[in-house]
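Query form — protein NAD-dependent epimerase/dehydratase domain-containing protein

QUESTION: What is the three-dimensional structure of this chain?
INPUT:
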Amino acid sequence: MGSNILITGAAGYIGGSIVAHFLATTNNVVKKANIIAAVRTEEQATALSKLGIIVLVLDLTDESAVLESVLRHNVGIVIHTASGLNTEIALHLVTALAKRKEVSKQETYIIHTSGESAFSASTGWPQGETQDTSLFEKEKELADSYPVRKTDVAVIERAKATGVTSFVVIPPMVYGKGSGQWNQLSVLLPVYIQGCFSSKSVRKFPNNITVSAVHISDMTALYEKMVEKILLKEPIPDGEKGYYSAKAHEVQWWELLTRLAVRLEARGLAADSTVRLWSDDKAAAKVLGVPEQFVSILWKSTSSMVPVNKRYLGWEPVWNKERLLANIDEEIDAVLELGEAKSSLISSLFEVAKG
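ANSWER: The structure tokens for NAD-dependent epimerase/dehydratase domain-containing protein are given below.
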């Protein structure tokens, strides 16, 4: 059975890589699906047009435009990667899917992309181990204190109320060069590496934290597994139980930065291989180019997420900590080649900081 799948944020790092992965897949179930890419600008649309798929320049803040596009293209599945911060646009997608279900009498699905920051102590989440099987009640309780949580809860509740099946994917730190047509860089590691380039040094925060991580190729494989289950109508946890952590492995920041410093010095990109401390968050924010209030959330927060629901998908990541550390030059090369990420995330953080 095929389906029409709308991927929002298709010019972004995760969304673009999902598009590329789905188009290249050998999975006989998923390859039958029709991919529709939603982007923000004509320039992005031109870049994606060479893929031979339908590309929509779609303003996700315009509810009527979203509804018209979902109905006109008979969209049965939405993979939403455009923003976990903006609740409004996520709800527009759910509402459109509900209408499509009403018209077609067929089930509709939304796969919403959240972020692991919603489950870290730095944003008010309780410390301690958390399984992705039991997140909803606590997230609902804390929804108003962090926009990503607010969006997760709103999607789940609106979907339940309107008969749309919902899933929430939780990416940790995603690394690796993406395969999309527009933005091929993530944010956390590339921004840090850019800061190392500009200062000719590597710096660390006083506390050595352990972070969850996943390679972009493993990340896109998780979405493929989920879509395969949907298309085959094989039941997997959804709604309040349908959170899926994309954590593949852990790595300590200091261990990662030590390896990075050695390679940058060897390549003449850092003055030496000593990893020094940031003087304070203000200094880090200036070098890294983010609002000071988000330094802690982006680079000093950790989560004790335990990915349990992946067992229902049969998802087995290929990359691990050792492979990441051994291939840190690939991260350096990607930033040297591509420069800064073509991402709206940093500008979104400045908007939130102003508001």
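ADDITIONAL NOTE: The radius of gyration is 20 Å.
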